[in-house]
Amino acid sequence: MLVAFYAPMKSPHHPVPSGDRQMAQLLMEALGKGGHQVQLASQHRAYDGTGDKKIQAAIRQEGDRQAMGLIEAYGDGRITPPQIWFTYHVYHKAPDWLGPRISEALNIPYVIAEASYAAKQEGGPWNIGLEASKRAIVMSDAVLSFNDNDNPGIKPFLKNGTDITPFPPFVDTRPYARAAEDRTRYRAITAEQYNVDPGVPWLISVAMMRTGDKLRSYEILGQALERISNQSWHLLVVGDGEARDDVRMALHPVGARVRYIGAKDSGDLPGLYAASDLYVWPAVNEAFGMAFVEAQASGIPVIAGDSGGVSGVVNAPDCGVLVPPHDPEQMARAITGLLSQPDKMKAMGKQAQARTWEHHGLNGAARRLTAVFEQLVSSCPS
Fold first, then answer.
1. Burial category of 317 from C-beta neighbours within 10 Å (exposed 0-12, middle 13-18, buried 19 and up)
2. Most Cβ neighbours (<10 Å): which of 12, 44, 324, 381?
3. What is the pLDDT of residue 380?
4. Phi, psi of 345 (to 5 degrees)
5. Greatest CA span in the chain, whole angstroms?
6. Is 186 exposed, middle or buried (0-12, 13-18, 19+ CB in 10 A)?
7. What average pLDDT does the segment 352-358 reach?
8. Contact indicator for 236, 194 with CB cutoff of 8 Å
């Protein structure tokens, strides 16, 4: 099946790494693995983080221009028309100006993965994007949901016959499995490269250094770790960004224990996860957290803030521990509890790995996508 793919929040080819870019890449990979031919329809970024209506109007104008151009190109045969349009991540700050219009013109199914509608934004600075997102949800023929918390907001706008399909976040588990099998070597390499004592437990966090929720998570993590500074551990921090100085300030109370790894390509992450013992992250306002999936695929348990769709990824208490995202005291207790029981921690890591391979792998995602598409095409022939 020929699928037109579009990610208004961040293109899979965007130069800056993030969870959104990674998921866009993984969705394209899963589509290919399912036997589908994938067209990256556009790299137009519809995201506006400022709430500036002039910026949003310009984004809309460019989206309209590209939509018309694609409709013409499909119509005159310059580009082979797709059988399905697939958009990843639609919300008020990154609406889809292309998919609904093109799907209607071509009379093909329109599918959204990860849609949300925040009623509290009505009449606010992103109202243009909010209304566009609502129109996209209304026109959708299927919605794939990574986070159950989004569903109540979008259900009222779905047309008859449109379903919300639960869709677990996923990764290609193979590189994480290989790294886990070679844990001893990766630990030795990491210990030498970053001057980390291999004889004490290693905590790891992987997150961009941005203001807002990411910085708040770093601040809570620093407060939690300060409470257990009398114990033996090191923290590996993987990530970078414009808030790096603020992050270092947030972790300053335990600075001697922290090793700043910097931003890393996806190919370097499996070894860093496998070298570590425990993944820790407060997850303030996290949608679901791809890093949680990656860490568990590498065979290490997770201590996470219980926000958004995190509980659908971290299967507590078998594979990790969930705590209130704004509570450094409970996070500190959870870390202490697992570090004091290394055998339990290892057993949880094995369970986490097995569950992730079964429920959050690339093969399963490919099968689920194909099942959705086949149902749509059979019930809505163009």
1. exposed
2. 12
3. 60
4. -60, -45
5. 70
6. buried
7. 93
8. yes
Q: Which two tokens stand for residue 140?
A: 């959708």
pLDDT > 50? residue 382: no
The amino acid that residue 254 corresponds to is V
Neighbouring C-beta atoms of residue 41, cutoff 10 Å:
23
Show Cβ contacts of residue 275 under 8 Å, excluding neighbours closer than 6 positions: 183, 186, 187, 189, 190, 191, 202
d(CA 319, CA 348): 5
SS3 163: strand
37-40 and 84-90 beta bridge pairing: unpaired
| Contact partners, residue 121, CB within 8 Å, separation at least 6 | 92, 127, 130
Kindly give, in sequence order, each residue whose CB lies less than 8 Å from that of residue 360, ignoring residues fewer than 6 positions away. Answer: 168, 169, 170, 171, 173, 293, 296, 297, 313
Length of the chain equals 382
CA dihedral (68, 4, 288, 271) in degrees, to 10, reads -130
Q: 66 to each of 15, 97, 176, how far by Cα in Å?
A: 21, 9, 38
Q: What is the pTM assigned to this prediction?
A: 0.81
List, for residues 57-92, the tens digit of each pLDDT value.
Answer: 999 999 999 999 999 999 999 999 999 999 999 999
The mean pLDDT value for 214-236 works out to: 97
3-state secondary structure (DSSP) of residue 332: helix
Question: For 122-153, how does the pLDDT look when each residue is reduced to its tens digit (9 = 90+)?
Answer: 999 999 999 999 999 999 999 999 888 899 99
Residues with Cβ < 8 Å from 43, sequence gap 6 or more?
11, 13, 14
CA 112 to chain centre: 15
> Please, which residues bridge with residue 304 across strands?
281, 322
If you average pLDDT over residues 334-342, what whole number do you get? 96
Taking alpha carbons only, the member of 281, 333, 329 closest to residue 305 is 281
pLDDT the model gives residue 147: 86
